[in-house]
Every structure is written in structure tokens, then in C-alpha cells.
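Example for tutorial group B:
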């Protein structure tokens, strides 16, 4: 032996600073089975909508899942929640201007699915 050591690759070390893939951010934004249908429904309606009406529009989503998803969208600035101090309580949801900017990309995805539905192995 010559006394040289062979460098071992480091485990769990991230690669050098790279530009993060925008698809990772997008998938994080719309993660979950119901995220896109909810957001797309709000974009198409483009008006304030009550919780029950939205739930019927994306049936068979559960109340718990719809609440979770709407809170996430509100946190990200995609949906605006407006509560009204009434009896019984009333809350309306509406897509924000930022959320509306997803209309074209989501329509593009819908068109792609429609065009390739028979080719997809589902």
C-alpha cells in the first residue's frame, strides 16, 4: 500500500447549492387528492362561495379534508376566508388574485388529461 486513503462519499449530504426545482414547490402547493379540484372549482366560480356549496361541488370530499385544504390555501394566500357574525354562522371562500393566476396552468393540465385520457393507463 502507498499510504493513500480513498475518499468515501459522504452520506446524506445535499448537493452543492442548486436552483430548487419549481415542480417541487408546485407539488407542495397542490399536494393531496383534493387540492386541485377545490382550487379549480373556486377559480371557475370566481365569486364568494359558502362551505357547504363548495363541499357539494367537490363531492365526495369530507368536511375535515375540505377544511384542512382551505386553511392551507388561505395560509398560502390563494384563498380568502370571510366570516360573518351571524346566527347561524356563515363563512364564504373566494379565490384571491394570486390564486387566479393558476387558472391557465390548471386549464392546460385539464386539456392535456382530456387529450390523453385513452392513452393513460389508469
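The residue assignment follows.
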Amino acid at each position: 500500500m502507498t499510504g493513500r486513503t480513498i475518499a468515501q462519499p459522504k452520506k446524506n449530504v445535499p448537493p452543492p447549492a442548486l436552483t430548487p426545482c419549481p415542480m417541487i414547490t408546485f407539488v407542495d402547493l397542490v399536494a393531496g387528492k383534493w387540492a386541485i379540484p377545490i382550487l379549480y372549482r373556486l377559480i371557475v366560480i370566481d365569486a364568494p362561495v359558502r362551505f357547504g356549496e363548495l363541499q357539494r361541488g367537490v363531492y365526495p370530499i369530507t368536511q375535515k379534508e375540505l377544511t384542512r385544504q382551505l386553511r392551507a390555501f388561505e395560509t398560502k394566500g390563494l384563498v380568502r376566508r370571510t366570516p360573518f357574525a351571524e346566527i347561524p354562522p356563515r363563512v364564504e371562500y373566494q379565490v384571491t388574485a394570486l390564486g387566479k393566476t393558476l387558472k391557465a396552468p390548471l386549464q392546460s393540465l385539464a386539456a392535456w388529461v382530456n387529450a390523453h385520457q385513452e392513452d393513460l393507463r389508469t
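The chain has a mean pLDDT of 88. Compare this with the pattern of hydrophobic and polar residues in the output above.
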